[in-house]
Design a protein that fits this description.
heterodimer, A: about 290 residues, mainly alpha, ABC transporter involved in vitamin B12 uptake, BtuC, two-stranded antiparallel sheet, 2 strands, about 75% helix, globular, B: about 325 residues, two-stranded antiparallel ribbon, 14 helices
Chain lengths: ~290, ~325
């Protein structure tokens, strides 16, 4: 039981990080039909912005802010204007190829210009353990969970309670109608790219103390985000959250109780099952087919 | 299908035949790799370029083909027996993998096939009793054909080239048959194809099965070519690389895979003078090409050809792989 609680908490913490990445991923898909195959690398990169800022002498909190800011500029604004916009008119597939190339580009860029070695990354809170019912729970997991939950709540309030948020939702649901109603659709699309950049930067700062900052981090993280988004439902923010949490918990439990060799296989089997039997995802809406 | 100037085709064939007489062993190895990977890329071009079903599993089929040959030949199975076994096995598995494509499209299909690739990789890595795990299998013998032993690098290259030529002829013939037309109909508008009485279900499965079996045949040549196979060679990277070959060459263009595979095999070697940075340059080149010419290098060549031919009626080339919604 004690080990179960331990696994559950660390699974929830990993799942919360997956959820943040998956939410950003679905936001991009909803407003601009961008399937970002480089999403994992987008999470890998901000940690290196933070490390670079710290090497330049900035304290951690300032470096983290610089990391988020750089992430907004590079992974939000530049990504939209340089990669996505020129491709938009060609449809989905060329953009998929382009983001695959981008992921390679970012990975190799970090490897060649920063380091190919895993870098240690400062944790949010000093590492110590709390004993709950005989289980040992690390404060780090709890801090990760807390930050992720706050982020999701803030995002939810932003999307549902503010005027801009509702305009973004309208853009996601029906861009044409949104434009007719006078919503600046292009600006709303840009905002979702900025939101995605903030989300991946937060995820990066949360995940790097656990996995260390390494140029290959994106491979597993990106995959996890895709799977989470599909399990939960591509067109729902809360679906992506649910998918991320399910995935994180399942990953930890199956590695401990079933087979650690096939750890990587369980999420994939669930992915295939969901796609075959409930392609819209657990919480998703069915998208209409058009002729 | 584009009209590829016959003269260029003859010249390309002449170069392909003459090349090994002027190359060092490593050069022969590279062009053999080109011939082998082109077969897999042709298969993917059939699935993706013609039938419009995106697949990130072609590398896994190359792996299954390679392991089939590497495991069967030591048991005394003649090479060509193992070769066809690899093709048949991948045909069957590809058929099964086609079932998700009946339900989902586009990015969902990309992820299912991606998951499949990773699952195959995990099985190859973990089932050591069968595949020897991460230690891989060495020393798959090169085949004997009609008493001629293709053991030298050059002879083996000609074997690969011959197989490539035969398979591309077969695919060329198939694409001109009603089947090929049906594949294109599937890509252009699946719902209309269905309403015209086309059995889209059977053709979708068929597109996957044939494309995958070409992947398997390519893998069957890959094992004796490199003579050392291990699971990592067939991880997601190879599937992505094959996808890039098809797109870079020109998806839905018969000669696209030939050009794409050539670029993908040779470019990293040429860019070696940039030392560690060649992957960065390669990735950047693909992004630039996607932004300016998503129909690939042959699309670019066609556009240039039309511009030279005169300013009359330059039709806009569109990306041929857009189907209907998910």
């Amino acid at each position: 039981m004690a080990s179960f609680i331990q696994l559950l908490v660390s699974g929830l913490a990993t799942g919360a990080i997956y959820a943040l990445i998956a939410v950003g991923f679905t936001l991009l898909w909803q407003t601009s039909q961008t399937i970002n195959f480089a999403q994992g690398e987008f999470v890998m990169l901000p940690a290196f912005f933070v490390l670079a800022a710290m090497n330049a002498g900035a304290p951690f909190w300032l470096a983290a802010l610089i990391g988020v800011a750089l992430s907004i500029v590079i992974l939000g604004i530049l990504f939209k204007f340089i990669i996505v916009d020129p491709m938009f008119k060609y449809g989905v597939l060329p953009l998929v190829i382009s983001t695959i190339a981008l992921s390679l580009f970012l990975k190799e860029g970090v490897k060649d210009f920063y380091s190919s070695q895993a870098q240690s990354f400062p944790a949010l809170v000093p590492a110590s353990d709390i004993h709950v019912f005989g289980a040992v729970v690390s404060t780090q997991s709890l801090a990760v969970l807390a930050v992720a939950i706050v982020t999701v709540i803030v995002l939810h309030l932003l999307l549902t309670k503010t005027r801009t948020g509702r305009q973004m939702q309208a853009t996601a649901q029906n861009p044409l109608l949104a434009r007719i109603l006078g919503i600046p659709v292009q600006r709303m699309v840009l905002y979702t790219f900025l939101l995605n950049a903030v989300l991946v930067a937060i995820a990066s700062i949360l995940v790097s103390p656990i996995y260390l900052a390494k140029f290959t981090n994106g491979e597993t993280l990106g995959m996890a985000a895709f799977i989470a988004a599909i399990i939960g439902g591509f067109n729902q923010v809360r679906g992506a959250v649910l998918g991320g949490v399910i995935l994180g918990v399942l990953d930890n439990l199956s590695a401990a109780y079933i087979s650690s060799q096939y750890r990587g296989a369980f999420p994939l089997i669930i992915l295939i099952a969901v796609i075959l039997f409930r392609p819209q995802g657990l919480l998703g809406r069915i998208e209409e087919r058009t002729v | 299908m584009t009209r590829f100037p016959a003269l260029a085709l003859v010249m390309a064939a002449a170069v392909a035949i003459a090349a090994p007489f002027f190359l060092k062993p490593f050069g022969i190895f590279l062009i053999s790799t080109w011939a082998v990977l082109t077969i897999a890329a042709i298969g993917l071009n059939l699935t993706l370029g013609y039938a419009g079903q995106i697949s990130l599993a072609q590398g896994a089929f190359v792996g299954m083909g390679a392991y089939t040959v590497a495991l069967l030949t030591p048991l005394g199975v003649p090479f060509f027996g193992a070769f066809f076994a690899a093709g048949l096995l991948c045909f069957a598995i590809g058929w099964v993998l086609g079932y998700p494509a009946l339900r989902v499209q586009h990015h969902y299909l990309a992820f299912v096939t991606l998951a499949f690739t990773t699952l195959v990789f995990l099985v190859l890595r973990n089932e050591e009793w069968l595949t020897n795990g991460i230690y891989g299998i060495t020393g798959t013998p090169r085949p004997t054909l009609f008493g001629l032993k293709a053991s030298s690098a050059r002879d083996f290259y000609f074997l690969c080239l011959g197989v490539l030529a035969l398979l591309s002829l077969a695919i060329w013939w198939m694409l001109r048959s009603p089947w090929g037309r049906a594949f294109v109909a599937l890509r252009e508008n699946p719902i209309r194809a269905l309403s015209l009485g086309l059995d889209t279900r059977r053709y979708t499965l068929m597109a996957f099965a044939i494309g995958s079996s070409l992947g398997g045949l390519s893998g069957a040549l890959y094992a004796p070519l490199v003579q050392f196979i291990e699971p990592n060679s067939f991880a997601l990277g190879l599937s992505l690389n094959l996808l890039l070959m098809v797109i870079v060459g020109g998806s839905g263009n018969f000669f696209g895979p030939f050009v794409g595979a050539l670029v993908a095999v040779l470019l990293p070697e040429w860019l070696r003078l940039t030392q560690g940075y060649y992957l960065i340059v390669y990735a950047a080149a693909i992004m630039v090409m996607m932004a300016f010419c998503p129909s690939g290098l042959l699309g670019l060549a066609e556009r240039a050809g039309r511009a030279l031919a005169g300013p009359r009626a330059v039709k806009k080339t569109s990306m041929p792989t857009e189907g209907a919604g998910p």
